[in-house]
Amino acid sequence: MKLARASGTLGLAVLAWIASPFALADDSGWYGGFNIGQSRAKIDDVRITSSLLGGGFATTSIVDDDRDTGYKLFGGYKVNKNFALEGGYFDLGRFGFTATTVPAGTLNGNIKLKGLNLDAVGILPINAKFSAFGRVGMNYAEANDSFSGTGAVRVTNTNPSKTELNYKLGLGIQYDFTEAFGMRAEAERYRINDAVGNKGDVDLFSLGLIYRFPAKRP
Length: 218
Known about the structure:
CATH class: Mainly Beta
Number of domains: 1
Helix content: 10-25%
Strand content: over 45%
Distance between the termini: 40 Å
Structural class: mainly beta
Shape: elongated
Number of helices: 2
């Protein structure tokens, strides 16, 4: 996690440097918050079946565990009423599968996903309380895989891992209870590649709270 901490420090430094020229812009300011919700992965059953077939196994069934609890911690700088820069840490949870084979055996696979992100956020105020927003950015994810076999299935590389930079997208709405506190509902897509060559998307549907730090007065 030394690499993750270094990347997080660098991301916050970049965020501060980009935002600094806009420090006097109208409606600007720093904020932070927390979201939690359900994450959903797209497990590639076709690739799993093909991989087992290459090892001499026919697949009779695959049971996927493609949902978990995910969360994120975030901080950002609102440049003006229509634009913000946001960075944070995310943990999308754990996903897995169990494939049953002939000759008799099973292949079990799991993956844990977490990382850092930096996004540009476009904001559309609807009224004094409601706003909609969209985001596009990059995620630096750590994918930790684990595999095990039973019966005739033998696994040689049981714990591969990978870190990689990729894109992320999202949409959401925000309701402000006060000038300082608000609530968000979001849908986000993280593009993440794992250590064995799978390329896929993980979606996070979440609710969260946001706190806007008071502006410093001269």
